[in-house]
Amino acid sequence: MSKIYISLGSNLGNKEQNLMGAIAAIGCEIGVVRRVSEFYASKPDGFVSENNFLNAALLVISDMEPLLVLRKLQQIEREMGRKPKSGNEYSDRIIDLDILLYDNEIINYPELKIPHPYMMERDFVLIPLREIAPELSIFKTA
Questions:
Q1: pLDDT at residue 85 in the model
Q2: Can you list the domains of the chain with their CATH numbers?
Q3: Global pTM value
Q4: What is the dihedral of CA 18, 11, 134, 141, to 10 degrees?
Q5: pLDDT in tens, 12-51
Q6: What is the distance between the alpha carbons of residues 58 and 98, in angstroms, rounded to a whole number?
Q7: How far apart are CA 41 and CA 12, in angstroms?
Q8: CA distance 135 to 39
Q9: In Å, how far are 7, 30, 32, 115, 142 from 1, measured between CA atoms?
Q10: What backbone torsions phi and psi does residue 129 show, to the nearest 5 degrees?
Q11: Of 45, 30, 19, 6, which Cα lies nearest the Cα of 123?
């Protein structure tokens, strides 16, 4: 069984309901949701929008392989009404689900990079992640 840390974000519709629906779907489709952070408000990053985000982080325990986890998260996003990304542009979205960490693995596939390549630059990811996993080595100081 692997420890999988997932970031969630929503800035359209009922954001809290969107996050709770995604958490439930992850529990049904991927594995046991062990920890859930509080929900944190944040401003959009990488694009301009009047819609602020609500963000959270999860710890999921699963025996699912990383690429299958990615596919399942993408399926959940589609089922919740997420529109396909056009190019490299960020935009408003009902739900955004990203794998941050998968055990201590380093994965560098074209479609999946673990650890998530931008997580250390994003407080909206790090704050909820630290809440549920302060023991992670990324939070240890020398």
A1: 66
A2: 2-139 (3.30.70.560)
A3: 0.92
A4: 160
A5: 999 999 999 999 999 999 999 999 999 999 988 776 778 8
A6: 10
A7: 13
A8: 20
A9: 19, 12, 10, 18, 30
A10: -65, -45
A11: 45
**β-strand partners of 109:** 112
User: Is pLDDT at 142 greater than 70 in this prediction?
Assistant: no
Residues 11 and 32: their CA atoms lie apart, in Å, by 25
* Catalytic residue list: 82, 93, 96, 98
